[in-house]
Write a structure and sequence with these properties.
This protein has 339 residues and is of the alpha+beta class. It has seven helices and eight strands; from the N terminus they run ββββββββααααααα. α3 packs antiparallel against α6 (313-326).
């Protein structure tokens, strides 16, 4: 059970109470002070000091000062009046307990209010800091935008200056070209004048040297006319050699592979067919060619018209084989049917 301290001293004025409490050698770190409007408690084990104040005080503005093994309290009164005693007399245990509990509740409520106020202040500080940061960021963004705009304007001006410089350079080059053309034209005109002047002087000199008379003038003019008329062009002939082509249709690059394949197949078919016929073994290779036979047939028609001996029967057999081979290509077969 703690020991109650009774050797304290106090003084008062109409507005304040000054209380001096000895610590009795207890360390300051082990001292616990609890103060409300009507209750003051100092716990420094094994000692305990309690005071149920005579009148309410302003606990928020009241102070406690520790030094020289003593605690000095400065308690400010809510009402300016002189107290008869520091602590209320005639208080039983139940009343003391109620005062203690009430003081604790008041302290808890004040602590809660202080915590809420502190949290509200912290939120306000955060809002203020956020607004300040947003303002700073807005200023930075605006600064960057201004820098970009300035750079854009600067680049636009430089581009316009470069375009103007290029335009002036082109104009200067154009003017120089025109001046050169004018100089060339002047030179040509001067040369023509010189040539004309020389021709006139020659004509005058020739006229002066030539005998007078109509015949001499006519001879001179006729000679000039003959010199001015150009000589006729020489006659020539141009020979044109067309590229030989087997097919009657025009050549197309997209069908070159197909035509070559068809020709290869025709040659293979002719070769296979020629080997099967015993009558064709004594013929030459050119005599087995249908194109050669075709040309030969045209020549035979001409020979018949001229009463010349016709082709042999073996040629007729080869032409028949040729017709059967060429019927595989549609366009060639049509051409052969027409012929």
């Amino acid at each position: 059970m703690p020991l109650q301290v009774s050797d304290y001293s106090w003084q008062q004025t109409k507005t304040a109470v000054f209380l001096s409490l000895p610590l009795k050698g207890v360390c300051v770190r082990d001292t616990d002070v609890f103060c409300t409007e009507n209750y003051l408690k100092v716990n420094f084990p094994p000692f305990l000091f309690e005071a149920f104040l005579y009148a309410p005080i302003d606990d928020e503005s009241s102070k406690a000062k520790i030094g020289n093994d003593t605690i000095v309290f400065t308690l400010y009164k809510k009402e300016a009046a002189m107290w008869e005693t520091l602590s209320v007399t005639g208080v039983d245990k139940e009343m003391m307990q109620r005062i203690r509990e009430k003081s604790i509740l008041q302290a808890q409520e004040r602590a809660k209010e202080a915590t809420e106020a502190k949290a509200a202040a912290k939120r306000e500080d955060q809002k203020y800091a956020l607004s300040v940061m947003m303002k700073i960021e807005e200023e930075e963004r605006k600064k960057i935008e201004d820098m970009k705009e300035n750079e854009r304007i600067k680049a636009t001006k430089e581009l316009e200056a470069w375009k103007e410089y290029q335009r002036k350079a082109e104009e200067q080059k154009k003017i120089q070209r025109e001046e050169k053309l004018c100089q060339k034209e002047k030179q040509i005109k001067e040369e023509r004048k010189k040539i004309k002047y020389k021709s006139l002087t020659r004509n005058l000199a020739s006229r002066n040297l030539a005998p007078k008379g109509r015949n001499s003038e006519n001879i001179f003019t006729e000679k000039l006319k003959e010199d001015s008329i150009p000589a006729p062009r020489s006659v020539g002939s141009i020979k044109i050699n067309f590229t030989p082509r087997v097919f009657p249709t025009a050549l197309r690059e997209s069908q070159v592979a197909e035509e070559e394949e068809w020709l290869h197949k025709q040659a293979e078919a002719r070769r296979a067919m020629n080997t099967d016929i015993a009558e064709l073994c004594d013929l030459k290779e050119e005599e087995k060619n249908p194109e050669w036979l075709k040309d030969k047939g045209k020549n035979s028609v001409l020979l018949r018209a001229l009463n010349v001996r016709p082709l042999s029967p073996s040629y007729a057999i080869i032409s028949l084989v040729t017709c059967t081979c060429t019927s595989r290509w549609p366009e060639a077969s049509e051409e052969s049917q027409k012929k």
